[in-house]
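Researcher: Here's a chain I'd like modeled. Treat it as a single chain, no partners, no ligands.
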Amino acid sequence: MSTQAVEHRGFITVSVMLTTIMQALDTTIANVALPHMQGSMGATQDQISWVLTSYIVAAAIWMPLTGILTARLGRKRVFIWSVVGFTVTSMLCGAAQNLEQIVLFRLLQGIFGASLVPLSQSVLLDTYPKEQHGSAMAMWGVGVMIGPVLGPSLGGWLTEYYSWRWVFYINLPFGLLAWFGLVAYVKETPTDSTRRFDIFGFLMLSIGIGALQMMLDRGESLDWFHSPEIILEGMLAVTGFYLFLAHIFTTDKPFIDPLIFSDRNFGIGLIFIFIIGIILLATMALLPPFMQGLMGYPVLDVGNLLAPRGIGTMAAMITVGKLSGKVDPRKEIFLGLVFTVFSLWQMTHYTVDSTPFQIVSVGMIQGFGLGFIFVPLSAISFATLQPKYRNEATSLFSLLRNIGSSIGISIVISYLAQRTQINHAAFAEYITPFNLALNEGIQQGVFDLKTPQGLIAINNQVNIQALTLAYLQDFRLMMWVTMAAIPLVFLLKAPPKKKA
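Model: Modeled as a single isolated chain. Structure tokens:
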């Protein structure tokens, strides 16, 4: 590590953190503003969803290119142009006048934003010595984990008091400050002009990732495999991934060197971060509609009640940063999983009458648990990996987290719809003349089953109870997924001890 990099370590960290926060915020901040965009653009529900889909698909396809681009052009140059492109396209999204424009600009924003998180992680790993990687990943993790948590509340506040366009304009100050810091303090890496671009490998991986993301994003609205589009996307995803894997193991200079997966900690880390991706955003996808639709909270209150999750995460990351090098990271990951399982178990006891204190306390416990998992996992996954693979490895690490998030959201939304139907059918069986509790309600004038209005009223009650139970069953499913990840802790190797 050069003397200059050591001297300006603080400025480099701040610049990198700004890019991480900027990109992480954009994964969720636009969700809240979608109804307002829909009205402004005169679009249908299906059409406006492309504002999210175009960004997600473009970012997923472009992210694996980070390694080859940095090898050929230099990491600093790629990083700076990514920040500039992301900031400019954010402004264009805010200024868009019709649906076609905003979808195009969101697609470009996804392309430029794809490299921001993996490059920020790579720069921090190179800026800090190996014994301080835990502290470095704690700082980096704050941006990655806080962004999705604060995104909905910040997006709701900007949309409510200003305009949905400020959801995109907010990136301008972040982008300018990050650009200045990168230009002034980050050192350029050596380039490799002999590095060949594996076009076939990239195309197959792009087809696999793109088709998978499209299938996950549109599956619920198209009734999954009852739709020819979803069947086609599923076949393209399987074919693309199969040909990509067959290609990288048989060609001389593959798009991604398969030797990168021979590092056990990195391989286990990819599986782990995939599961963390499922838990992190899947629960965040369930809580806002549960709190708005069943508990009756307005959107701003929902954001305020969910924000303390970020406080728990920050507390965990500060704690982990101070423990870095003193405690085995595998013990920290195990403790984080225990906290996360406990919080999800508490969420299975939510009711429509749960107090704000319950929501805030459980959210803080869950944020604390995820923080205790994410930071040591990010450090131990790269602890034994050769530095030459770092740029490719960080892009794969972020890609698996994003794919995990997409799959997790698709699973919980589909499971919610399925369980709601099953629960409704089960509860409806108790609406009979022989139900003593129902007869008591009829006698007291609560229900009147002799009128259409009375039948509608009791059906609404059944709907509420069926949907509430379905949410709780979803939380229980997430709890079992988290518990299934615990054995992976014992497969990780202890990081190399610091030499005296």
